[in-house]
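Can't paste images in this forum, so I'm doing it all in text. The chain is below; anyone willing to post the predicted structure tokens underneath?
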Amino acid sequence: MSHDRGAIGVLLPCDIPTADMIPFAREADAYGFDELWVAEDLGHRGGLVQAATVLARTRRIRVGVGLLPAAARNVAFTAMEAATLAQLHPGRLDLAVGHGMPAWMRSAGAWLHSPLTLLHEYINGLRALLTGRPAHTDGRYVRLDGPRLHPSALPEQAPAVFAGVRSPKSLALSGRTADGTLLAEPATPPYVRQALRSINPRRPHRITAYNIAAVDNDPRAAVAAARPALKALGDTDWKPHIEPLGFYDELADLRRHSPSADAFAQTMPERWVEQLSLSGTAAHVRDHLNDLFLSGVTSAVLIPAGPSPRASLATLTAVL
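Text version of the structure:
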């Protein structure tokens, strides 16, 4: 059920109860969402295993993995896993690779001195392998001496490889090397336009944008549902997302003076919450989706806000 200007997807929440994972995926498929993205946040569930499970238990929805930290996996073996999924589920897999959240990767002993060098080497090697070419790379972090996927392991259609990035240098790298860019939440139209100037793609390039989403006939109830999900935004990692909106310094100051992340989210002005999420009535959220598509987004992925992911998913169908 693609929108007039782009696809509408939904994120499988990383902390969803186990018993709800498959029902959530099947309901997203049945409701008519175009895409279902799964996350690989440190300490939660593995991205490729989630993707394999929901692909096998759904009928037609496209599944994206967003994102796999490059330092955590040898690129040749990532290619084998991704090719197998793409072979078993033709045309239904997208794969996003990034350098990962610095704090998470440091805690796992996997943060490298030059993460952008790693990402450049990794994406080039992965795309070569997924299209059946022998991969030769003698890089700083990725060294491949001619491995290639056996013809029996090659999918008819290689999955698209996205870069999950946010800094201007990494966005430019995505435009040079990847099939698309995954923009983490909050991905507002001003941020998307700024990111696209850095991406500067030389060939067709997809833009997938994550956003916290809540729909309610009472717009204040929707804003209240979205608010708790924004508690991480005082962290400097989100500065590139918020600076284009003009209130990052105020937001960072509020976070510094808040006793906790929860308190920060609860005291955030309502107008900030409205700008940093897709929250409000169905008509209001549809208007915001239009703005995202006009800014260059090809796939808008909704992150269900609220205590019950499946109940939130049902309300989000109102924007389809």
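The radius of gyration is 19 Å. The mean pLDDT is 95.
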